[in-house]
Design brief:
By secondary structure, the protein is α+β, with helices and mostly antiparallel strands. Helix content is 54%, strand content 14%. The protein has 15 helices and eleven strands. Strands 4-5-3-6-9-11-10 form a seven-stranded mixed β-sheet. A hairpin with an 8-residue loop joins β10 and β11. α1 crosses α3.
Length: 401
Amino acid sequence: MDSGFGSLDLDTLAAEAGVSTEYVQELTTAGAIRADPVGSYLPDDIPRVRLAAALAGAGIDTDALMWAIRSGILQLAEFRGIWRVAAPGGRHYAEFKASLGSRGAQLGRLYLAFGLVEPPDEAPIADDEASLLTAFLETWDDVDPSPDLALRAARIAGEGIRRLQLATIDLFDEWGGAPPQRMARGMSSEDAFRPSMRLGTVVPQLLLWLQARHLESELFGRIVLSVQSRLMEEGRIKTAPREPPAVAFVDLSGYTAATIAAGDKAAAEFSTHLETLAADAVRPVRGQIVKLLGDGIMMRFRRTFDGCSAVLSLMDGVEHAGLPAAHAGMAAGPLVVRDGDVYGSTVNLAARIAAHASAGEFLVNDLAAQHLADAGQDLQDAGDVALKGVPEPVKLARLRR
């Protein structure tokens, strides 16, 4: 992968790797890394030196490091092109921080929100990192100058990326894709590292592509709804019956007992299968999976009828897949949407209704039932039910499946 710059001298390599020149010389003398005849190093030596320093911090000195390399335990030479090495920008972190003025005081918390460690003041900072952080702060400052807003945005991005990377690497290891696992199966060093090298290229490109596609889809959907609403208000198009948004919880019945009997691996497979079925169910109605709850799914919908269709589809899918029977609860009403999550009494009510439902049962609150009945949905009165945490009995209806 293109590093963005050419060969490095000793001082630059040490600075970029965050170590002393003496340590770089020690690694060179030992043979862990190599300099060319004029004393220059490759950009790929930056992650190699960083890894060696991390191992040293864990008590593995250079002698032990070289033994691991000679024994094939550590393939340090193969750490090339797995991730992009940014070109140095010629400024130290302290200079960059000062250039931001009052916003520079936010940087430490911003790195923390991203899930990263703030660089020391003397560390060089790459131009692309400085430019991106500056643009990030300016973007959210234009929306509202409150520092908390940028921190919330950073937390969303950091947690999303961290989860993606963790889950991807876990999946890689689970299926034997890690280089040590592949070498243990008798593969050559080149063959063992090939999937890792590809992953380092594919994932960043995939993220850019997916981000653009999801952004387009979400923005188009919101623009259409906004224009449609305005045209209805002006009488330019026929006003459709207003339906409130809805939140639904679908849980697997007897999940704990089933996983005890089947084992942890089966439990993970149940959750993965449920997530796949839920994604297939919400896609046709433009619903959203809000959270994965291990043995359940939380979803939100713009219209109550959309939620009903998706939940019924998901429950049928669970049954046909042979998973533990599902039970579901849905509530229609006002929602507080914040950072991709939803909050409020409607959410709490939906969770309580789902907990009350029996295996194979789909219950909804009275407001949802009214709109579903108007749409011709087959419902059965489930009575007034006392739910935990809800002060008054709640009138429920049962969806006939």
